[in-house]
Amino acid sequence: MGARSHVPLPALSDDRVLLRAAEPLDLPAIDAGIHDPDVVRWIGPPEGSAHDVLVQNEDRWAHGSPTLSICELDGTCVGKVWLSVSETDSSAGSIGYWLLPVGRGRGLATSAVRLLSTWAVRELGITNLRIRTASDNKRSQRVAERSGFRCVGTAADESPDGPDSRDVVYALDAC
């Protein structure tokens, strides 16, 4: 995927959630998220500050992989959702997400994944879209399923010797 730094990130919305480019106003939410015990459990410890995350997200988008803030309809940031486009196949990508406790259990992650997936297929030409979850992360598995993804196996099926070979892999049927 080519450089996209000249293309603004989209604002996507439905009746439940707003996805938009991160803003400095989001820094407290990002800081809380990257230090939240559940986020750290499933995604790993932060590799820098909230500001570092914003810089990293801008760099990722410049290389074709967008990250958006998951917001309440009033614009309050409650999480992040991202698409990692494959460096070797620009039609393939994977989605990840996290929510602060205040955003959990209300369908916000499902809405965010649906919105980003639809946009990625339509605007970026992604035809092979996946979500990987830890085998015991049942909440993320339900998000994937409610977002239209179906379980296609484990990461061991794709990379038997990988460190996350027990992860469950979901694919979007619409692709």
SSE blueprint and pairings:
Layout: E1 12-13, E2 18-20, H1 27-35, H2 37-43, H3 50-62, E3 67-71, E4 77-85, E5 92-99, H4 108-124, E6 128-133, H5 138-146, E7 149-154, H6 155-158, E8 168-172
Parallel strand pairs: 5-6
Antiparallel strand pairs: 1-2, 2-3, 3-4, 4-5, 6-8, 7-8
Task: Give a verbal description of the structure.
The chain is of the alpha+beta class and 175 residues long. It is 34% helix and 25% strand. It has one domain (12-172): Gcn5-related N-acetyltransferase (GNAT) (Aminopeptidase), CATH 3.40.630. It has helices at 27-35, 37-43, 50-62, 108-124, 138-146, 155-158; strands spanning 12-13, 18-20, 67-71, 77-85, 92-99, 128-133, 149-154, 168-172. Strands 1-2-3-4-5-6-8-7 form an eight-stranded mixed β-sheet, with helices on both faces. Helix 1 (27-35) packs across helix 3 (50-62). The longest helix is centred in the middle third of the chain and has 17 residues, at 108-124. The two termini are 18 Å apart. The model is unreliable at 1-5 (pLDDT under 50).
Oligomer: single chain
Summarize the amount of helix as a percent range: 25-40%
Q: What is the CATH C-level name?
A: Alpha Beta
Low-confidence stretches: 1-5
Fill in the keyword field for this structure:
175 residues; alpha+beta; Aminopeptidase; eight-stranded mixed beta sheet; 8 strands; 25% strand
